[in-house]
Design a protein that fits this description.
The chain has 397 residues and is α+β, with helices and mostly antiparallel strands. It has helices at residues 3-8, 10-31, 39-49, 235-248, 275-279, 352-355, and strands at 151-152, 156-157, 183-185, 191-193, 199-203, 260-262, 291-292, 298-300, 328-330, 363-368, 382-384, 392-395. Helices cover 16% and strands 10% of the residues.
Length: 397
Amino acid sequence: MPAAIARSCPFVLVALVALTAAACTGTAVNETDAPEADDTTADAAGSNATDTDGPDSDEPSTTTDPAPPTGSDGDASTGTSSPGDDTGSTEDAPFCGDGLVDPAEECDDGLDNANDGPCTLECTAAACGDGLIWAGHEACDDGNDSDDDACVAGCVPASCGDGFLFVGAEECEPGDIDDNGEYACGLDCTWSPIVAPPRRVFLSSVSFYGDLSIHAPSLGDYALADFPDGGKTGVLLADARCQALAVLGGLAQKGDPPSFHAWLSDNNGSELSSAVDRLQPQADPQAQAGYTLPGGPMIATSFAGLTQGLMAAILKDEQGALVMGAPYVWSNTAATGEALGKVDAMGHPTSCESWHSASADRFGQIGAATQAQPAWTDAGAVQFCSTAWQLYCFEGG
């Protein structure tokens, strides 16, 4: 600038300097950002500056966000529920078929639950009478406890001789006698007229060795010479034992002609060897008397009926008491009443030397006292004559 101008216009120069300084200062300020206000300070300042008149204030209002949800340990939520919170639970409720026995269930076999198995589809234990047939354990199940229909106790089908009267299908049960004593029930569960008073049968309360002559004080002291054959066969001595027991049981009177005989045979082939020869039943089956245990039941409607199997096992003694623990009896007799005629490996008759031997070297044929089928008289086995077994005693005629 010319000096003349500077001297003539001092104020102009001052103004230019001032503008230049202002420009330099503004540039410096613009290049440096001003610090931002702290939120808390701003909030506080805003709060202090906010008019108490509320919404009409020109200042912007501030809000406080709610605290974030926390988990069970107080940390920020991870999306899982607390143990006591049912919301969002994925645990299944118990049900029949889950394989776990719940309080309201008797059983639970899971996928194996079945109405023909031990655990039903309702998780109840299979039982006779529930109306469901448990395969392999029940033959029937009609859902009731009645024993007069097609399915009886034990869930087995009704059958003649099971002890239950199947109404509409059976007239009676074997061994029954009608109230008037005129009819007896046979093995076919039908009534048959009683043509003669039933004969009594019992199992001896006393056991005997294979030698029937061995002394038995309570049954009399017999000498072999007292018998028709001089004691050649022990079957007559066995008859005497049965007669004595019948007297003791009140089935016969002392001094009466012998009427009870042992169901026992030897192999001598004499006219007295077989039981049927001594019992002497009527030849005509239609005229034969039946046989009954003391106090019942009837075991056969005739002598011929014995060959078909008994209607009840002979397990009552002369007093009418049930005999326990009596598996075998001396017999050597077929269901027809004839002698079996068998021999042992040494060729000795299996009749304990005509029932005169108690030797452990001899054998006697036996029957099974607990059986009602043909094994009752012929069990297909022998026992040592040194063992003691009981006798069947039949009333003759």
